[in-house]
């Protein structure tokens, strides 16, 4: 496919490429549940069992299981194609979510919650599959790919902005299991629409080139950075929900979290309109520094003002550094991943994020239960500082 000029890398012109609107619509539907499942599970489990520690541990277990399974699912996608692999994998994941719903509803033993949520590990990396399609369509056009990656990150943030609010609304307005039920239906529907768009699907690579991305120079430090960044997200989510619950506004927790995603979404869209300058490694370090600098704002807001509106504003500001960080890190990962292993490489990034979210969720829940929700906001600060340290110490890949 011919390269596009810099003037053609606006978002509007990006979607003049045939087929891009159709696969993006299906992917957005499938991606929205990513922002719903964990919040729905936390609200559902904490409401029925009275423990945020248990809710955080269950979601952490499911995320850890997904982190283990995701690279294998992605490898199958690279070798056999998105449509042949993603549909059956999604069906298994949806059954796991519905099993969790039934276990909570009927008061099954705690261990069944862990087993059911772990069964959702086969959920395909919808964001990774979408980025793989852009990389296939924009082969060789670095600036257009930067814009596409920025849009995809903004889409992630949009789903994590709407998802928690929708989940909290459904669980609080109808019944505690409503968020999980709707999320499962959206996931299956979106994947079916997405995989039906065969004309933009990257061709399968039965014999991928190069070694595993984990053994590729420059990728392991990026994965470590994704783990630390994921801990920021996981801890912030559970601690914010616990703080809102302690303040007597449980259903407002999802809306407050949405503001963090809103700030990140706006920053990501703006970042995508800017022409990338300088080495991506240096840009990533500046983004990590900005994230670490802004992350103490939620702790300051809750400790000094003890106000949910103040926390909402702090999360909006703190979220503005996360999207540029993720966009730059994903761009680096795409450049360093061997040919024919793009889904696997991006899945490893998501695996790192999920591992980090799992650790952050469990740690944040424990601190919120045993100390206070306000003290829990120190966990994302430590995680952001860890990500900065990893980025500062990492050497550039050859």
UniProtKB/TrEMBL annotation:
Which keywords has UniProt assigned to this entry? Membrane, Transmembrane, Transmembrane helix
> Record's SUPFAM superfamilies?
MFS general substrate transporter
Residues crossing the lipid bilayer are 21-46, 52-74, 86-108, 218-243, 255-274, 286-305, 311-333, 345-368, 374-393
User: Which PANTHER family has this protein been placed in?
Assistant: MAJOR FACILITATOR SUPERFAMILY (MFS) PROFILE DOMAIN-CONTAINING PROTEIN, PTHR23542
Indicate what this protein is called per its UniProt record.
MFS transporter
């Amino acid at each position: 496919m011919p390269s596009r000029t810099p003037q053609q890398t606006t978002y509007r012109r990006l979607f003049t490429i045939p087929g891009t609107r159709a696969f993006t619509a299906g992917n957005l539907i499938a991606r929205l549940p990513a922002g719903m499942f964990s919040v729905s599970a936390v609200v559902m489990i904490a409401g029925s069992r009275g423990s945020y520690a248990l809710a955080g541990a269950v979601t952490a277990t499911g995320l850890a299981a997904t982190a283990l399974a995701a690279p294998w699912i992605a490898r199958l996608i690279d070798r056999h194609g998105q449509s042949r692999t993603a549909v059956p994998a999604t069906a298994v994941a949806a059954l796991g979510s519905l099993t969790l719903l039934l276990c909570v509803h009927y008061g099954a033993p705690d261990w069944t919650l862990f087993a059911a949520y772990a069964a959702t590990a086969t959920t395909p990396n919808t964001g990774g599959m979408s980025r793989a399609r852009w990389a296939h369509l924009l082969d060789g056009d670095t600036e257009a790919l930067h814009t596409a990656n920025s849009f995809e990150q903004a889409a992630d943030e949009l789903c994590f902005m709407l998802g928690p609010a929708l989940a909290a609304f459904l669980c609080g307005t109808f019944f505690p299991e409503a968020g999980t039920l709707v999320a499962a239906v959206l996931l299956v529907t979106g994947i079916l629409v997405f995989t039906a768009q065969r004309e933009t699907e990257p061709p399968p690579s039965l014999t991928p080139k190069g070694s595993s991305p984990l053994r590729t120079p420059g990728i392991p430090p990026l994965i470590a950075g994704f783990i630390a960044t994921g801990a920021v997200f996981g801890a912030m989510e559970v601690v914010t929900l616990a703080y809102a619950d302690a303040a007597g506004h449980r259903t407002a927790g999802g809306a407050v979290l949405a503001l963090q995603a809103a700030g990140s979404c706006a920053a990501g869209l703006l970042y995508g309109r800017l022409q990338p300058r300088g080495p991506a490694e240096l840009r990533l370090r500046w983004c990590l520094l900005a994230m670490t600098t802004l992350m103490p704002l939620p702790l300051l807001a809750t400790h000094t003002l003890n106000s949910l509106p103040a926390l909402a504003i702090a999360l909006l500001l703190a979220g503005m550094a996360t999207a540029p960080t993720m966009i730059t890190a994903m761009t680096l990962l795409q450049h360093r991943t061997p040919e024919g292993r793009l889904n696997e490489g991006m899945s490893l990034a998501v695996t790192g994020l999920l591992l980090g979210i799992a650790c952050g969720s469990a740690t944040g829940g424990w601190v919120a239960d045993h100390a206070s929700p306000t003290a829990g906001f120190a966990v994302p600060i430590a995680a952001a500082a860890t990500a900065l340290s990893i980025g500062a110490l990492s050497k550039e890949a050859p």
